[in-house]
Amino acid sequence: MIEFLHTSKVYPNGVEAVRDLTFTIKQGEEVFITGPAGAGKTTIFKLLIKDESPTGGTIMFGGASLNSLPDKEIPYIRRKFGVVFQDLKLLPDRTVEDNISFVLHAIGISYSQRKEKITRILSLFGFENKYSLLPKELSAGEKQKLAFARALSTEPEVLLIDEPFSHLEVASAWELLQLFCFDSLHKRTVVVITQDREIARKSGRRVIELKAGQIITNV
Question: N or C, which terminus of the chain has less Cβ within 10 Å?
């Protein structure tokens, strides 16, 4: 599903964020990418969704190289990813319903299909009576749930989650992951990026640990 082959990224200011990374994430695998601040986790995140391009090596997705992907193809690749951002990136002036509808509309889902998908996903996450609320009217936990619901509403091939433990207590965030992301019937690929190495190690999933832009553990 995902391959980094001797991948490096040097930013214009000369900072080498990641160096000679080689790893594979198989389809349906659940993987934690961890390490301290500055280890290169955010760069991997940006490389995966084509916010950045590598300065060395190759990144493969589904057997195709992302390096040579034309700009016009980038939106189609991004549709294969459901992303939960660290800062959630909920639309503050849109309701719960519209936050979901916006991403479905962006990928070309018809109005009737959007209504069906919105009803199903918001019911799954317990938002049946909160369609018209704005994000500021939700609790921290509800905002996190809405971000997960939005990411999953597009039925992505890969779920990419950035720092899920930064907004919630560990137990609550872990419950979200267990209920909606891990061991699901869809067997989608799940990549969790977190600074919390202890949680990653206890997860029972494969852990790719970074330090100073290089892999120090991949088990």
Answer: C
